[in-house]
Amino acid sequence: MSGPLVVLVGPMGVGKSTVGQQLADRLGVAYRDTDDDIVAAAGRTIADIFVEEGEPAFRAVEKAAVLRALAGHDGVLALGGGSVLDEETRGLLAGHRVVYLSMDVEEAVKRTGLNAARPLLAVNPRKQWRELMESRRHLYEGVATAVVPTDGRTPEEVTQAVLDALELKQA
């Protein structure tokens, strides 16, 4: 299989970056995050892109970043929370080991505080997070090879659960 060894998807704040880095370390491969790619290329934050150009412009940039990363990275890849909204992106994930890191709203509150620094949660964050998950959960599940709940687990426990779910051996 060409492309990433593991692709992580899930909502904002679920721990894709933390778990992704730990997975990469334990598997002896490189780690890459498409959100980091976007920020590096744009020279500004994702929130700034949302505010200055709007969500459709951001989603186009995100789609291009995901396409590049899927084609050019062979380690662990974390995708932005909304990347699965794009149908072509979902199609490209077929055939990859994709892990959906899941969590419920109470865990999201604990982890992120559902703060307004996240552009899609600027007003009534708890309600907006629930609505985002209602619209995205089936998309995450649809692309996933495995679903790993993160609620009440440490990053180390989640990392081990991903390794176990995919039957991957550490380096």
What does this protein structure show overall?
The chain has 171 residues and is an alpha/beta fold. The chain is 54% helix and 11% strand. Strands 2-3-1-4-5 form a five-stranded parallel sheet, sandwiched between helices.
Features of this protein?
alpha/beta, five-stranded parallel beta sheet, 8 helices, 5 strands, 54% helix, globular
Specify the oligomeric state: single chain
Strand coverage percent: 5-15%
Distance between the termini: 18 Å
Uncertain spans = none
Order of helices and strands: EHEHHHEHEHHEH
Derived from helix and strand composition plus strand pairing, the structural class reads alpha/beta
